[in-house]
Design a protein that fits this description.
By secondary structure, this protein is an alpha/beta fold. The chain is built from ten helices and 17 strands. α10 (323-331) links the parallel β16 and β17 (338-342). The chain binds NADP nicotinamide-adenine-dinucleotide phosphate (NAP) and zinc ion (ZN).
């Protein structure tokens, strides 16, 4: 076991405090990582505030981890000391079920082990990336390509994979008409990835205040959803709508923006249910779908894709003592576009 500095929330919604946690000794298939950067995902906010229920406290959040390998177990072949690596939302899965075998560990039948606010299969609580060091099974570690800076790679480990997978799964390519709803952490990466895949991308944001950025990220069009005209103008326009909104909204208005056979895929995870009108689906044989993060092979593929196509998160690098304030700004949609914690400031 080794002790490492961490930022911990003692109870639901409480302010963060600096603390020390224990990491397990390096096992044969483990990789020990010095964390350099960790992104702040809105899922961290949902869980620290216990908005989804069942949160485990004290909590050390963080599932957008980038750092450097400091030790490897005897059986580890894919990583060496000094490698630049990333860890996302999962740190274990059964490895044997049909989904694990297919590289979709997020759907593991036994239930994957989440990087934080989860439990290892032996019951030990997991602590995430708002810390200086972590020990992770090698199967859940990915290589960060040379051309990606570590602080830029960090947000891709969740925001990148969560948007890449549905765009890939629903076959986005040259000329696909894609709308991205909400241009926060996930949304601003999703716009870039969809554009890099060849899609014609439209951003649907609450206001036009971020329009210039959206166009710079690769969108062709940018509309304000506070303007009801938007919903008339864009009726039956899109093949795929990627919903990244963290709060509840009138999903029917968005479903009606789909063409016949179009799909609205939600990655946004508000705590309250959506109210879906049958006729919003029936009218255009439309589909409402969901998507959860992504498996390890797709995570590596996504990082390589982003490196190659110049997809880079727009980040605001912050120190450990600024995390509480950053959460407030995330909740008020004032994030431009991902906060990343400089782990060296944790202790
Ligand atoms: P974020 O940075 O806060 O972005 C969310 C965006 O949603 C905001 O920037 C805002 O965009 C829009 N929004 C917020 N409140 C709204 C409201 N009341 N009405 C309409 N639009 C609103 O959050 P994130 O980190 O990208 O995460 C987004 C959601 O995805 C969260 O619920 C998170 O838990 C979830 N998530 C899911 C997965 C998965 O595997 N499915 C993975 C990661 C995250 P505009 O300012 O442009 O309107
Ligand atoms: Zn996340």
């Amino acid at each position: 076991m080794t002790s490492t500095a961490a930022l911990s929330a003692p109870s639901a919604g409480a302010a963060f405090g600096k603390t020390t946690i224990e990491r397990r000794g390096v096992r044969a298939d483990d990789v020990q990582i010095d964390i350099a950067y960790c992104g702040i995902c809105h899922s961290d906010v949902h869980q620290v505030r216990d908005e989804w229920g069942g949160s485990i406290f004290p909590m050390v959040p963080g599932h957008e981890i980038a750092g450097v390998v400091t030790a490897v177990g005897a059986e580890v072949e894919r990583f060496s000391v000094g490698d630049r690596v990333g860890v996302g939302c999962m740190v274990d899965s059964c490895g044997e079920c049909e989904y694990c075998v297919a590289g979709e560990e997020q759907f593991c039948v036994k239930g994957n082990v989440q990087t934080y606010n989860g439990r290892e299969y032996d019951g030990t609580p997991t602590y995430g990336g708002y810390s200086r060091q972590i020990v992770v099974k090698d199967r859940f570690v990915v290589h960060i390509p040379e051309s990606l800076e570590l602080q830029d790679a960090a947000p891709l480990l969740c925001a990148g994979i969560t948007t890449y997978v549905p765009l890939k799964h629903w076959g986005v390519g040259e000329g696909t008409k894609v709308a991205v709803v909400g241009m926060g952490g996930l949304g601003h990466v999703g716009v870039q990835i969809a554009a890099a895949m060849g899609a014609e991308v439209t951003v649907l944001s609450q206001t036009l205040s971020k329009k210039d950025d959206g166009l710079r990220f690769g969108a062709k069009e940018y509309y304000a959803t506070s303007d009801r005209e938007t919903f008339k103008q864009l009726r039956s326009s899109f093949d795929l709508i990627l919903n990244t909104v963290s709060a509840n909204f009138d999903i029917n208005a968005y479903l009606r923006l789909l063409r016949v056979d179009g799909t609205l895929v939600t990655v946004g995870a508000p705590p309250d249910p959506y109210e879906v009108q049958a006729f919003a689906l029936i009218g255009g044989r439309r589909r409402l779908a969901g998507s959860a993060i992504g498996g390890l092979p797709d995570t590596q593929e996504m990082l390589d894709f982003c490196a190659e196509h110049g997809v880079r998160p727009a980040i605001e690098l912050i120190a450990a003592d600024a995390v509480d304030g950053a959460y407030e700004r995330v909740v008020s949609s004032d994030v431009r576009y991902r906060f990343v914690i400089d782990a060296a400031t944790i202790g």
